[in-house]
């Protein structure tokens, strides 16, 4: 790229995340150019951690891109490719999906005339190209336009919006083909420092590692933001060790180098609040997530539904046939996993959650020449 590139894009909020939404046909035909362009658009890499010279804000929840196109599949309306950009480093992790930003995908599709449902409650089928899974997004349409204004609140977002119901179909096995890729409901991980911790390794929504907060000197009620470096490093070692046990990386060095965003790690504790079954905090790009990722919530709901997992133990028993409500750094979230037992293991037919979303700005991103 040897000239200024003006990239049509829309800045959108979906759930508790923000990101750049871009039509695939607005990008160069040479896909090898995409990553460098998108990193420059967001302002990465930035050793100061602020993304000051781009549209990112220095937070993992807003250093994201979604690339969309009309679907090539008969059973979907749109195809989505999600990228989670590192803030300090020149890399984008394309291995997972964003459950929160998925709520904004049907709005973008309608505003860009990729989907034209009739008025009323419409269903838009989304193909998650990163993980090969489908989402059914149910939202209201009025006068041919998506409705995003309403009085439905989600914790972590200051203003209300219209509810968008997301049904994540068959969400397990996105990377390994199995809900529990190690073949066990509880694993004992040996960390490089010689210590041992128990963990449940789940591959649903996105690969996620669940550990007890107390094993890391934590309460499970930590606020959003940075953590002590020693605690953060030990959590990262646990995450990288789990990635190897899940078959996602050859060794912990490859896990840290090639899969910085996925699997995620979440630390849990039993809840004292009668409205919640447990407390959950999630690390995202070396910080406690200001709320909780949508795909992490999917993994948590699936794990809580199965007796013998660490999350189910902390929840006081399997949460099955009813919604799961858990606390996060900004409040609470409720969702439900519809889970059954297949011949060769557990199966999840769908996980259902409700989010809000809206467009924030539409225009062109100026991308300087490399």
Automatic annotation (TrEMBL):
Belongs to the PrpF family. It comes from Chromobacterium subtsugae. It comes from the Bacteria. Pfam families: PrpF. InterPro entries: PrpF-like. This is 3-methylitaconate isomerase. Gene3D superfamilies: Diaminopimelate Epimerase, Chain A, domain 1 (3.10.310.10). Keywords: Isomerase.
């Amino acid at each position: 790229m040897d000239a200024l590139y003006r990239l049509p894009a829309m800045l959108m909020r979906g759930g508790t995340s923000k990101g750049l939404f871009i039509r695939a046909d607005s990008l160069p035909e040479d896909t090898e150019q995409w990553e460098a362009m998108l990193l420059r658009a967001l302002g990465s890499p930035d050793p100061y951690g602020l993304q000051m010279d781009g549209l990112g804000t220095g937070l993992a929840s807003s250093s994201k891109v979604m690339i969309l196109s009309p679907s090539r599949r008969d059973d979907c309306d749109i195809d989505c490719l999600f990228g989670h950009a590192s803030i300090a480093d020149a890399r984008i992790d394309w291995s997972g999906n964003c459950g929160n930003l998925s709520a904004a995908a049907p709005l973008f599709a309608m505003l860009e005339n990729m989907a034209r449902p009739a008025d009323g409650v419409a269903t838009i089928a989304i193909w998650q190209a990163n993980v090969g899974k489908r989402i059914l997004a149910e939202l209201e349409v009025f006068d041919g336009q998506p409705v995003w204004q309403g009085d439905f609140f989600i914790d972590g977002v200051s203003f209300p919006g219209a509810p968008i119901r997301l049904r994540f179909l068959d969400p397990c096995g996105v990377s390994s083909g199995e809900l529990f890729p190690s073949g066990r409901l509880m694993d004992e991980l040996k960390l490089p420092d010689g210590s041992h911790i128990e963990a449940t390794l789940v591959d649903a929504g996105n690969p996620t590692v669940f550990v007890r907060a107390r094993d890391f000197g934590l309460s499970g009620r930590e606020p959003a933001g940075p953590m002590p470096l020693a605690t953060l490093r030990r959590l990262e070692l646990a995450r990288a060790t789990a990635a190897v046990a899940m078959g996602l990386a050859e060794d912990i060095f490859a896990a840290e180098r090639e899969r910085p965003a996925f699997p995620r790690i979440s630390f849990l504790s039993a809840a004292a609040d009668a409205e919640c079954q447990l407390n959950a905090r999630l690390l995202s790009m070396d910080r406690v997530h200001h709320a909780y990722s949508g795909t992490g919530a999917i993994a948590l709901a699936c794990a809580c539904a199965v007796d013998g997992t660490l999350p189910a133990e902390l929840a006081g028993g399997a949460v099955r046939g009813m919604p799961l409500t858990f606390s996060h750094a900004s409040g609470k979230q409720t969702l439900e996993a519809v889970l059954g037992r297949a011949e060769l293991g557990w199966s999840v037919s769908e996980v259902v959650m409700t989010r809000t979303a809206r467009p924030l700005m539409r225009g062109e991103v100026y991308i300087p020449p490399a």
